[in-house]
Amino acid sequence: MIEVRSPCDGSLVGTAQLAVNADIDLAVGVARKAFDEGPWPRIPARDPVVRILPADLAPPLAG
């Protein structure tokens, strides 16, 4: 675990799990697939709607 601190005052904001290379590779692969097969490249920059993939589509972390 690592501490996440505010850049304004250094106060503790929370903690986060460290990622291993397999976690990063997995995240990049999922993002690439979402970009290649999803609507991302066709969404106009002016579109204010945020689109989020359902969490159950993302594989579990490798650690």
Structural class: alpha+beta
Which residues form runs of ≥5 with pLDDT under 50? none
* Elements, N to C (H/E): EEH
Q: How many distinct helices?
A: 1
Q: Distance between termini?
A: 12 Å
Work out the helicity level: 25-40%
Radius of gyration: 16 Å
What order do the strands of the largest sheet run in, or round the barrel if closed? 1-2
**Oligomerization status of the protein chains:** single chain
Mean pLDDT over all positions: 81
Protein topology:
Blueprint: E1 2-5, E2 12-16, H1 21-37
Task: Describe this entry's structure for a reader.
With 63 residues, the chain is α+β, with helices and mostly antiparallel strands. The protein is 27% helix and 14% strand. The chain is built from 1 helix and 2 strands, in the order ββα. The protein has one helix at 21-37, and strands at 2-5, 12-16. It has a two-stranded antiparallel sheet with strand order 1-2. Strand 1 and strand 2 (12-16) form a beta hairpin. The protein is flat, with a radius of gyration of 16 Å.
Structural features:
single chain, 63 residues, alpha+beta, 14% strand, flat
Q: Concise description?
A:
The protein is an alpha+beta fold and about 60 residues long. About 25% of the residues lie in helices and about 15% in strands.
